[in-house]
Each structure stands twice: as C-alpha cells, then as structure tokens.
Amino acid sequence: MTSSRRQFIRTGLGLAAATSLPLVAGCAAPAPVAPVARSIAPGAFRARLGAATITAVSDGAASSPLADGFVRNATLPQVQQALREAGLPTDRLTIPFTAFVVEHDGRRVLMDAGNGQFGAPTAGRLLANLGAAGIDPRSIDTILISHFHGDHINGLRDRDGTLAFPNARLMVPAPEWNFWTDDARRAAVPGAPSGDTVRRVFRPIAGSVVRFQPDSELVAGVRSIAAYGHAPGHTAFSIASRGQTFAYLGDLTNIAALFVRNPDWAVRFDMDAEAARLTRRRLLEAAVTGDWIVGGYHLPAPGLGRIVRRGSGYDFVPLS
Hints:
By secondary structure, this protein is of the alpha+beta class. It has helices at 3-10, 15-18, 76-85, 126-132, 150-153, 174-180, 183-187, 196-202, 256-259, 273-290, and strands spanning 38-41, 44-49, 52-65, 92-104, 107-111, 142-144, 169-173, 210-212, 217-219, 222-226, 235-241, 244-248, 293-295, 304-310, 313-318.
C-alpha cells in the first residue's frame, strides 16, 4: 500500500462507513506519522500510535508436530502447501504467544495475561519480558481478557495463587464469563475444554472481576469488539488516536500463514468454526479498509502489523 493511500485512509473519514465496529473517534492529524515497531528488549517491540504507546511483549512459544486435523476443513497436503508458500516448515508448527500493553491517558492496560507457570517449557516468559521492557507488573492498572483459554488467563495467578498483577483491575467479557462458569452450558458444547483452569484462576477473585458487555468503552479510550466464534465470548479491543487505530485481535487467527491467508479455514481450537470464520472475514476486511495497525496473540514477531488483501484471502505484513 502506498504511503499516500495510507495517509488518506488514516484521516478516519471513511472508517465509520467502512465498518460498523464501534471504534473511538481519534483527533485527525494532517499527516499522521507511520507507526514503526522498535525492538526495545529481547521479546518486546514498541510502536507509537497517535497519543498511545503499544508494546508487544512475548510470552514465548510452543512447538509441536503438524498433524492432520489441525485445520479442520483442509487436507494435510493443502496445509503443507500453504506453509511451504510462506517459507515455513511443513512438518512442525510453532505458535507464538504475545500480549500487549497499551499506555494512554495515564493508564497502563495489559491485553491478555499469558501462560504463566502452566504452559510449555518455552512459554511463560511474559513477566520476564515485561521487566526487560521496563514495565513493572505492579504498574499495570487494568487487564483486559479476550477469552478464557488457558494460554490467555493462566498468567494471572501463580501455582501458589499469588496474583501476578496485584494492582490491576481485571475486566472480562460477560458472555465468556457466563459460558465458562455455567457447567451445564459448557458440558453441552462438544469438545469444549474443561472448566478447571477457569475455576482455578477466577474462583478466588470472582467478586472483584469486572464483567463487561461487548461493543462498549472500557478504559482510556479502549473499546471492546464482539469477535465470537473462537470462544463463546471471544472479544477484540481497539483504540483510535489522532486518526490511527490499533486493534488487538486476540485469537482471531492462529498461524497467520494459514488462517489470515485462508480465512475460511478452521483451526481445531475454534469452538464454533462457522462463527469464527464469519468474524475473521469481518475483522480482517475492516482492518484493510481502516488501515488498522493490528496485534494478535499468535501473530509472528513483532506481533504488530497491517492486513492486506491477497487473492481471496489476506496477508499479515509486520511493522518494520
């Protein structure tokens, strides 16, 4: 995309018409500075977006052999071909984990909390990488959770129950809370993960957890975007500032080379594959139309970039 086209789109004049997503209107600048992702420490990248600072912080990664069924509606040879075209190994998958810190209007907001002490040996690096980036976990004042899969919530509490972010107000999507805390509803969904992780993390602090409705402003100009499908209450978050928009897409996509390029493919982790497909199409198209800077929990480093159209699908182009 040319820089002149980026500047035209970033004025924000066409965003509301292009998508019905409830984003905060930014103060349009005559010529917004194109965001750049700078490496500020091992495992951490930072970009300036209008008046907001976005820091992508790695929680590590997990690797496993590629198995038939990872993509539920594509054959193994099709998946291997897509990986080959992207220059990735065709026998193994490496899934990165990346949380995001948004600093805006005097607030420091963490989006998702990582694996903590419960993930793969190569995961659980969020606290160390926050420290390397100069962010004290005690300085996080708000945590927004996209959904309740373990790699997003296990980092809230250590094995001994200690809160990793003791001064943060914890905010979660109400539809996600209502599903995972209702054993009957969860049991009625074939293949739904156990609720053990949710009980371990949330039961001792249930009284202090803020449950928000989708498509609402949460804190410091950050809005929630209903993004259901991957999980019943899966939620994305956005902030607009000075004509630019950042959207954290959570688990909208898993391996970008597979599910951004082929948005109709369903990863085996999607709890409602058809709803996830429709959501993926909707938000990826909105990201192109609005020239958003996007972040995703499983996007490759630096975890920040843009979405561009590619044939019948899309591509993730990392910020540089």
